[in-house]
Amino acid sequence: MPSAYATSFRINPKTMQTVHSVTELRQLLGAQRQAGKRIAFVPTMGNLHGGHASLLEAAKAQGDYLVASVYVNPLQFGLNEDYEQYPRTLEDDQRVLEQAQVDLLFAPTDEEMYPNGMETSTKVRVEGLTDILCGAHRPGHFEGIATVVSMLFNLVQPDVAVFGRKDYQQYIMLRRMVTELRFPVEIVGAPTVREDSGLAQSSRNRYLTQEERTLAPQLYATLKSAADKLRSDGAQVGEVERWGFDALEAAGFEPDYFEVRCTDLSVPRSEDEGLVILSAAWLGKARLIDNIELASLSD
Ligand code: AMP
To answer: Whose C-alpha lies nearest to ligand 1, atom 15?
Structure first.
């Protein structure tokens, strides 16, 4: 005699399914596609927080079958980076995803993703966007992301995929990738979710000590002050970049960069362009990234 729980579990059509293999994924998605469903997709590395939840909510509104992936992609980590320490919390993540009414979770193994070995398999590089800003400090990082997202797009074949604007460079790179490689997928950029302090939510915030946590909101505060300097005080781009870098250093960060760019990440040439200020800075073991988008300065 099955328990009441097992019975309700089986008859509930909204229960999320988790698959670990490409074969299972393709079978389940094939049926949904045949049924004419619009597939929305949110790729993640797991250890889900409010930022991911907002992406799932945005994706839910964009399609009628919601797919999420949880995969800590080794190809996007450098040799001395935090691949080993990166938090893996699949059971907790499954609960968050169920709550967000995800229909299907793809949580593959490395063998499923890189059956021919990671080093020697095909890579995707988005010219001009992979070696600037974070790319200059993390060689191979964006190539790793472009490669795994291409693969995930080929496996899931979503109609729409949602990415966070917190990882602004990643978002812009993926937009260009789908345009240039003609992936038939719409890329949606969701706003950054922050703690009350202004600190952007991130899985890497858990590397911060208590003392560092009180300092961490200074990253966004500095970006906001830099935006004010550009907008209201008429400061020059170079001046603001130096000011931001120095301000972060003085606050106890070790900044990698603090740069003002056009929204497509090219170097600004006129005042009439929309701008974004981006920064990455170390605080102890955590490398924090954040950005602030500004409309045209002449608005
Ligand atoms: P990750 O699991 O860190 O690879 O992130 C998966 C997706 O969540 C990416 O599209 C990120 O840009 C997005 N994301 C991460 N943190 C935030 C945040 N605080 N607000 C909005 N989106 C986020």
So the answer is: 51
